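Troubleshooting: if your tokenizer reports a length mismatch, compare your output against this known-good record of 449 residues.
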Amino acid sequence: MHRYNGNTQAEQQEMLQALGLNDVGQLFADIPAGLRLGRPLSLPPALAEQDLIKYLAGLAGANANTDEYTCFLGAGAYDRHIPAHIHHLISRQEFLTAYTPYQPEISQGTLQNIFEYQSMICELTGMDVANASMYDGASALAEAAISACNATRRSRILVSAALHPEYRQTIQTYCRFNGVEIEEFPYQNGQADLKRLEEIIGDNTAAILLGQPNFFGIVEDISAAAQLAHAAKALLLVSADPIALALLEAPGNQGADIVVGEGQSLGNPLGFGGPYLGFFAAKEKHLRRMPGRITGITKDVEGKRGFVLTIQTREQHIRREKATSNICSNEALCALAAAIYMSTMGKEGLREVARLSLAKAHYAHDALLATGKFKPLFPDAPYFQEFALTADEPIYQLNKRLLKEKIFGGYDLSQAYPTLGNSWLIACTEKRTKEEIDILAKKAGADNA
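Known-good structure output:
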């Protein structure tokens, strides 16, 4: 077999002759001339391997990263400790595919790890069934909203203004062409205003959507919201932080009908924004309206245990507007990392991660208030690992000062909530040390340079 490198005109001509062609343009004869570029691509000359590695390393080095910077930025994605063995296990070649395991006879390993992942998500959320993960927390919640409308045959959803702003935007995108009406209801002292919710909920309400904790890091009253939803024969959808669920009561035990969330905290890196995974869990009665893949356990003809995709047919995912969902990509590699993480940590390990995050967030809160430069945005509201403060200076200026000290400051809440002014959302995970928090308080509390 001739190995073609394409480095010389002679090699190109040899390839064309082997194909019975006269010029390269004939390879693209089926593409209309008006759609062709008509000129060579504007690419730099090829580099030798060692030069390319050096060049790419220089590009990567221009990024500020959490290996070199201390991170107090959360807002839905969190800098957590990832046990070293997770990367090694998910790097095994049998896991390096996003293809859905439709053929169970050759996919038992993949199907089993998905089944274990689903089982652990059900334990955390208090739900009966979970799917094999989705794109991210935002798309999972949007899919849940559509599922709720289908289940109730209603077309109005009520969304808390304290829900993650990007999640609310994603819901708007999903619902725009589905005939779904979206109405936001306000918050009081950082929590969903249930009194206002009671006033606006009605016979046409399909679902209520809350975060747990919400975008401000504050714990919501899920039980009270569930009572309001069910009294109106609507569903309660909760977007939950899985680490917080190690300490908080499972939403399913408080009356939630569907629980979704972002699984990045479960053994997946920040990755400059992805890839992430959304988990989706529900009560059994909503099983057949769930999007994505569901793995079940069965026995073969010899009575041996086996794992299969179940409930849904493959064709369900390729029916366009008639499909339950058009999510077709498989996030199973990220879900595998989550499954290994949850297995590694166990119940007590997850609780310890949550307890440390809680304790360090409260220590940071008090340390920042002690500087006299900050005030609580939502006094006395119960929070988990994030809290909101008001500052004496613009948040962009404060974060710019901290960045010079190799500190990622908190989220500027005025980006999503302009009326909140100079408000700062700080996150503390189990990774943050007392020394790092003390440095944050010292640098943030210093007089403006």
